[in-house]
Amino acid sequence: GWLVSTRWSADGTHSGGTIYREPTGKRCQIWGITQWRIKDGRVVREWQLFNEFDLMMQIARARHG
């Protein structure tokens, strides 16, 4: 099968109470890589990696100045 990779980025506002705690209302940016294993025209596996530590640091800076 095929292995398809994409590099991506996203900008948004930290607005939800998730694993990253209370919302700060501040802008955040992340980037990542996603790979899909394609077999017979269907996705059979997906891997994803993104800069979670950097995101956590952006939120901490927003929270503590």
Number of helices: 1
The helix/strand series, from N terminus to C terminus, equals EEEH
Helix percentage:
10-25%
Calculate the mean pLDDT score and round it.
91
Please tell me how large the radius of gyration is: 16 Å
What is the CA-CA span between the terminal residues?
A: 48 Å
Strand content: over 45%
Q: In total, how many beta strands? A: 3
CATH topology: Nuclear Transport Factor 2, Chain: A
What would your notes on this structure say?
The structure is a single chain. By secondary structure, this protein is of the alpha+beta class. The protein has 1 helix and 3 strands, in the order βββα. A 3-stranded antiparallel β-sheet has the order 1-2-3, with helices on one face. The longest helix has 13 residues, at 52-64. The model has no long low-confidence stretch (mean pLDDT 91).
Labels describing this entry:
elongated, 1 helix, 52% strand, Nuclear Transport Factor 2, Chain: A
Brief account:
By secondary structure, the chain is α+β, with helices and mostly antiparallel strands. About 20% of the residues lie in helices and about 50% in strands. Strands 1-2-3 form a 3-stranded antiparallel sheet, with helices on one face.
